Amino acid sequence: MGATPRLADVDPHTYNLDPKNVRSRLTRRTRAIIVSHQFGLPADLDELLAFGIPLIEDCAQAIGARYREQPAGTVGSVAIISFYATKLLTTGEGGMLLSRDRRLLARMRDRRDYDERRRHAIRFNYKLTDFQAALGRSQWRRLPAMLARRSAIAQRYRHRWAGLPIGLPSVGGDRKHVYHRFVIEVPTAVGTTARRLAEIGVSARRPVYRPLHLVLGLGGFPGAAHAYKHALSLPLYPALTSQEEAIVVRAVQQVFA
């Protein structure tokens, strides 16, 4: 599209886009803000909306999350959702675009399918197969139960780890977290902690393999840098058994007691 992306920093505790940092990076040419609801927690949308710039909500990790009683993905101008295998709802691959703007939706529909068009333009072949759509529909029926299971595990983690020297996922009265990932803040190096947990039989890793500012060799992103050093994602998913959950609980207690 000829646009130049500009990175903004995250809050090192919520891992969501920091509105104050966004404000410092806006220019007269800014046309949109892409905001990811990281790990299942909605971002601070009110502050971002106050800039008067269209929001593109990335809900890949936040299907079912709510911000001030509104479903994530219904606040901005556009929402995008991923249905990859590791997401809250999967079709194996693929995704969805949501908007209330009928004209914008018509433009998107025009671009997703290139065949038999009278007017020549750049178009793509972005379609789910029928098999993927059927899987997605079956997953949709199961989504409330899967989200409830995630929430129940998360609450037990919070209770069992409340006294440990770790930072637990942020929550707020006006935001419903759906726990795509259970990300804690550890006081020591992430790599060292992950290795100690692995020795006990628990797999844990950085929630983001490598932040984009590091890929591009950029400085000036202390929030993301802090998260890269101290954020650790622990096992939490609907198929996690009670026995496996107990192993995770004891392992974290053993490492941080």
Write up what this structure looks like:
The structure is a single chain. This protein is of the alpha/beta class and 257 residues long. The protein folds into two domains: 19-132, Aspartate Aminotransferase, domain 2, CATH 3.40.640.10; 144-256, Aspartate Aminotransferase, domain 1 (Alpha-Beta Complex). Helices cover 36% and strands 12% of the residues. It has helices spanning 19-25, 45-49, 102-112, 130-160, 190-200, 212-215, 222-230, 242-256, and strands at residues 33-36, 55-58, 66-67, 70-71, 78-82, 95-98, 175-176, 182-185, 231-234. The protein has a four-stranded mixed β-sheet with strand order 1-2-5-6, with no helix packed on it. It starts with 18 loop residues before the first helix and ends with a helix.
List keywords for this structure.
257 residues; alpha/beta; Aspartate Aminotransferase, domain 2; Aspartate Aminotransferase, domain 1; 4-stranded mixed sheet; 9 strands
Short description:
This protein is an alpha/beta fold and 257 residues long.
